[in-house]
Amino acid sequence: MMNIEEILTGIEVVSVTGTKDRTISAIEFDSRKVIKDSLFIAVRGYKSDGHDFIKSAIDSGAIAIICEILPEKPLNDICWIKTTDSAKALGVAASNFFGNPSSALKLVGVTGTNGKTTIATLLYRMFRMLGYKCGLFSTVCNYINEKEFDATHTTPDPVQLNYLLAEMVREGCDYAFMEVSSHSAHQQRIAGLKFAGGIFTNLTHDHLDYHKTFDNYLAAKKSFFDSLPGNAFALVNADDRNGRVMLQNCSASHYTFSLRGMADYRCTIIEQSFEGMGLKIQGKEVWTRFIGDFNASNLLAVYASSELLGAAKNEILTFLSDLRPVRGRLEVIKSPGGISGIVDYAHSPDALLNVIDTINKIREGGVQLITVVGAGGDRDRTKRPEMAAICAEGSNKVILTSDNPRSEDPEKILDEMEAGITADLKRKTLRIADRHEAIKTAVMLANKGDVILIAGKGHETYQEIKGVKHHFDDREELINALLLK
């Protein structure tokens, strides 16, 4: 329960009609969830406009409305608050309502196209190993210490986000680590939060179905760094040219990390196999259970941000060697028959290129790489042919299959993917729309020593077809098929 006046702290208010001397029981932006004495915030969404549901919210018990456009005849018994940006107001109001919980934690956000889940999750695990109570917001799952909460979005909506942050404070958490998606930054879901640090991984072709242009996508990521306070740190990947862009107009202290050039934090790969790799970080050698240049970069970001948060260097290195890959991120599964299966979430051209390059650097001559890959329906269609081309060029055999077709026809998605494969590469390409059969076929084609890459879904345990989610786990499918080999 909170007074309207307190909830409005920090919100750009254009006008107020009606009394602010009222107590609010809940904040909602979904009219279906409104209860008695709620504050309803009308947000313009991607597919609908909250202004169209104001009457429904009032009918359900809302006594105050924040909106950008007032109705022609505002009801007298409602407190009407006009603002210039309802989405931003929602974030700030939710933060106020739950007692500004991010200020009581050291909250670190991770943004970029690839690596967000790995870095945020490994930081959470690292600081748990260091003896701290921690929270995590990730694509895979949200955690408050060891308690698990399902993740429906990479970054939750502002109400759920601040509720969980408040729970973290109540549970005594010292740190919280969060994936900050471009959608959440653009939609102001993180408005009102106080970050102790921000990490930038990289920026490649993705989510253009939503952002329309690469410049818009970049601007959404940069807006997160623009909002960091002066006492926070901004850690960026110097190996991505967009890293320096993130630091422009950023008030936080600037730091860089790199595998290839001059930076505040440096790392080189000494050796690697499918079991792991040896790294030299800031002149110190450490063995890890991860593989791939991009994972070396991810681990360097974990090391750097851990040090910036005050952890001791030797402890960080010790625990780095104990960390294990995140589920569905270059997860290696060995069969009794000597076949190496790899499950990875790669679903963009750059991510696929990184994974395939990593495998090809490790596999020896005579060892085949068989790749199973699809593309999500109702998402950026322009990347489909490029994804297929990368897989065909870097693999010995490719099986094009369904990912989450959603409302689209799986065969039409495969048509668009196949359009990117040149005539000479089509001889090593198969089309099997049924993902179960595609994985089973890949295993049948593999011989001892070969590598099978199952790309695109990673940690997901469902497949969405025609609006219905069916249980489907790439890891389960691969293990079952390998056992039958």
Largest sheet: 11 strands, mixed
Number of helices: 16
CATH classification class of the largest domain: Alpha Beta
Q: Which of globular, elongated, flat, extended, rod-shaped describes the shape? A: globular
So, CATH architecture of the largest domain? Answer: 3-Layer(aba) Sandwich
Rg from alpha-carbon coordinates: 24 Å
Helix content: 25-40%
Strand content of the residues, in percent? 15-25%
Order of strands, main sheet, comes to 11-10-9-12-8-13-14-15-16-17-18
Beta-strand segment tally: 26
CATH superfamily of the largest domain: Mur-like, catalytic domain
Please tell me the total number of domains: 3
- Topology-level CATH name of the largest domain: UDP-N-acetylmuramoyl-L-alanine:D-glutamate ligase
Class from helix and strand fractions: alpha/beta
Unreliable parts? none
Average residue-wise pLDDT:
94
Distance between the termini: 60 Å
List the helices and strands and how they pair.
Elements: E1 2-3, H1 4-7, E2 13-17, E3 23-24, E4 26-28, E5 38-41, H2 54-59, E6 62-67, E7 79-83, H3 86-97, E8 106-111, H4 116-129, E9 134-137, E10 141-144, E11 147-150, H5 158-170, E12 175-179, H6 182-186, E13 197-200, H7 208-211, H8 214-226, E14 233-237, H9 242-247, E15 253-258, E16 265-273, E17 276-281, E18 284-288, H10 293-308, H11 313-320, E19 331-334, E20 340-344, H12 349-362, E21 369-373, H13 384-394, E22 397-400, H14 410-418, E23 429-431, H15 435-445, E24 451-455, E25 462-465, E26 468-471, H16 474-484
Parallel strand pairs: 4-5, 5-6, 6-7, 8-12, 8-13, 9-12, 13-14, 14-15, 15-16, 20-24, 21-22, 21-24, 22-23
Antiparallel strand pairs: 1-3, 2-7, 9-10, 10-11, 16-17, 17-18, 19-20, 25-26
Helix pairs in contact: 3-5, 4-10, 10-11, 12-13, 13-14, 15-16
